[in-house]
Amino acid sequence: MVRIVFRDVAGNAQEINAEPGVSLMVSAKAHGIAGIEAECGGSMVCATCHIYVDEPWFSAIGAAGPIEAEMVEYTRHPRLTSRLSCQILVTEAMDGMEVGVPLSQR
Amino acid sequence: MASLAHTIPPHVKPEQVFEFDIYADPRISDDVQGSYAEALRHAPDIFWSPLNGGHWLVQRHDLIAEVVKNPAVFSAREMQIPRVKNPPLFIPLNLDPPGNVPYRHVLMPKFSPRAVAEMEGKMRAMAAEIVADVADAGTCDFVHDVAARFPVSVFMEVMGLPLEKLHEFRAIADGFFKAHTNEEYQAASQQIAAIFHELIDFRRKAPGEDLISHFITVDFEGRKLSLEEIMAMCTVLFLGGMDTVTNVTAFTFQQLADDPALQSRLAADPALLPQFAEEGLRMFGVIGTPRLVVQDFDAHGIAFRKGDMVLNALWQSGRDPTRIANPDRFDIDRKDMAHLNFSTGPHLCLGHALARAEMRILAEEWLKRVPSFRAIPGAHHGFRMGTVIALKSLPLQWDIA
Ligand code: HEM
Ligand code: FES
Q: Which of A80, B100, B112, B328 could cross-link to B95 by cystine, CB 3.0-4.6 Å?
């Protein structure tokens, strides 16, 4: 299992055991992380699965590709470390990763 | 339209057949979504209705999600039940991935949560004006006078239709959504096409910040969009962007009119309005989205065969008892308001953020002026059903100070 910590804007943290080989969004939804809406179910058309990836993890997993980056631009609260969680495939190497959930997805 | 012949192909098992007329089933009443859920209570999760040319109907939340997320089997390219000879091609609605993706990206900047937030002030002013037109009368037909008017104003703003066209455009939209006969429908369609053509010409000369100007100037994979592409997008925006908001709002207010306690709670605490709008969206889905089976596929004991039509009854997703506790109770405090009334997957409604904002803002401006109201007793509201569900009227009354 891969431990991932989700933090809301107030700093409340929730750790989940994410499943390797599927997207981080799928595990976040399965664990009911508040603020991850994921309305399109991973089709990269809604950007309501937006998260911020803390360093050093952001650099390790890399920035968004061009289409994802464009989707991120349309969110309410984009940052330099923004990613769409449906586009992050969980691997064992992500064990211990911390991510932030934005103030709102829409 | 309804066809009374029964069609049951050999790949459909007898226990999978459930007779239901999506255009005129006698079990449906003014509480359309509630009576729908009741009528299908004992029908299989996926069933074959032999009416209207014969088609599958999917009525469970998770199964609907499976279908709309599998475009290789369930294509969006045809959406008519029964099938027609020359189906129209709306963009991006009838394009399966990856063909739809570049168009979604052309549209996204104007419909993103951020773009919607920027329009909030303008939308609020429009809503306030529409409510002000009826507030002192003490009575109105909420559908005609309020719920149908507001989305038209918002739509014109998004598209960049000059305000002096408001009355003309409102009349055309009204005529279109009320069209009964093929002639009325054709005439209204032509008027709409003419308006968009005129608008495109106008914006070529006088570009602004609006969507049409964006369509004209945007770089689309190294070229400009053709007139046909622009028209195909305008049409889907017209069809999907106004009547839908009107209908969900109308059903939600039909519910609210019977609940004075909720009215006063919402009037006192507008911070509850996003939850109120979402609960309305969950309970009162108005779109069913058809898919065409393009490849034989066996799942959940069903043999889907090439050429079969499948109706995803999205309004059933929010009423799914296997997913939601007491699904037929309107409860703005519930934690889980899961529904697929904006669909999901590659065709997730482009306007979902805009629609939610419209519902919330209109309710807020309404309650500011009319904090307490009721349905006129005994009035028959009337409805339309099919792949779109609509409430025809909602006569309300309230005390004026
Ligand atoms: C409460 C109101 C609304 C509801 C219930 C609704 C529902 C839907 C549904 C169910 C779909 C997907 C159909 C499918 O999967 O085949 C859809 C698509 C779409 N909607 Fe909405 N809609 C609403 C409001 C709006 C608004 C306000 C706009 C824009 C002005 C809009 C624009 C679109 C567009 C362009 C598509 C096509 C997206 C695509 O194919 O990629 N909708 N809508
Ligand atoms: S779930 Fe829709 S973009 Fe990630």
A: B100
